[in-house]
Amino acid sequence: MGLTSKAMQRSSQIDEPDYGYLHANMVIPDGGKAHRDKYCVPRVEVELAFVLRSALKGPGVGIVEALRATEYVVPAIEIVDARVQDPRRIFDTISDNGASAGIVLGGRPVRPDQIDLRWAGCILYKNAEIEETGLAAGVLGHPALGVAWLANKLGSQGITMEPGHVVLTGSFTRVAFAEKGDAFHADFGQLGGVAIQFV
Prior knowledge:
Layout: E1 2-3, H1 6-12, E2 19-20, E3 32-34, E4 42-52, H2 63-68, E5 70-81, H3 90-95, E6 100-105, E7 121-126, E8 129-135, H4 143-155, E9 166-168, E10 176-177, E11 183-187, E12 193-198
């Protein structure tokens, strides 16, 4: 599942988090190609993906519970693609699956206690030039709080997050628009990199 972070909330003029579902057919291999004409207005976000080791269900999930339930964290690029016109409201993004349209996982998986995830940074390159930079603390102060928020939100609907589920915790940079021929490389430093090209 993918979350809408503070950076995306500001750019979308939405004042609360939301989420969408990630489906198997949305996964693109690291370094792979995405067909630009498959999307409406594709944009790229850099995020951390949390892969769960154990079930997680709210209410009452906090950062400690979210970290304990996580097997590893890995760099990710999410392709977002809004199918509604701006300005959007919260119910627009919900009906649009949180604008989730694709996901690329790559880099080096790390256990959540191996590094201070707040300081995980990324330099996003578009066609070999720096487009955006940011720190994961831009997601609610700590990206694991995004996992906790989602567990509590889904728990209020009777839904449990299961082992193996992938949670994108939200972009900590502004989106970068993607046109045909654009190549993106997200450099997460010690966590490695992840890349995609639009053809």
